[in-house]
Amino acid sequence: MRILVLNGPNLGRLGVREPEVYGSATLEDLQTTLRADAAKHDIDVRQTNSEPELMEWLYEAVDTGTPVILNPAAFTHYSYALRDAVAMVTKAGVPLIEVHISNPHAREEFRHTSVISSVATGVIAGFGFDSYRLALVQLTRN
Ligand code: DQA
Q1: 22 part of the active site
Q2: What are the TM regions of this chain, as residue ranges (predicted)?
Q3: How far is the CA of 62 from the centre of ligand 1 (A)?
Q4: Domains with residue ranges and CATH for the chain
Q5: Distance of alpha carbon 53 from alpha carbon 46, whole angstroms
Q6: Ligand 1 neighbourhood includes 13 CB (under 6 angstroms)
Q7: In Å, what is the CA distance from 62 to each residue of 8, 50, 76?
Q8: What pLDDT, in 10s, does the model give residues 101-133?
Q9: pTM across the whole model
């Protein structure tokens, strides 16, 4: 099975960006970990700072029926356009799990709102890279 692991703005800076919040590992480290966890599967890790590009990748998930692990980063909190694209994925019956490295609910108030969660299949937050690994367990069970 192919799984898209899509990451939004500033996540390309993992490792140097606020390591006290996000840790010191990089996006490449994340890819290595996920590929080791799910060697039987095709794990496609991508990152963009561009909202339209992220939306195009979600259309790709719909058109190819590919499950998604999505860290929408700051788009989580305000992007209705991204929300509508996520709804297209899940309404097509394709699972999409929203993940966060940190626990946004334990941080600034603007992070307490997710416009994505109500259209995601599920949400995992606060476990560092293990948030992605747990999402992968869910998508690859049985
Ligand atoms: C994040 C949390 C968001 O609030 C923030 O804007 C991010 C990363 C996380 O993974 O913890 O960029 O999605």
Answers
A1: yes
A2: none
A3: 24
A4: 2-140 (3.40.50.9100)
A5: 10
A6: no
A7: 18, 19, 20
A8: 999 999 999 999 999 999 999 999 999 999 999
A9: 0.97
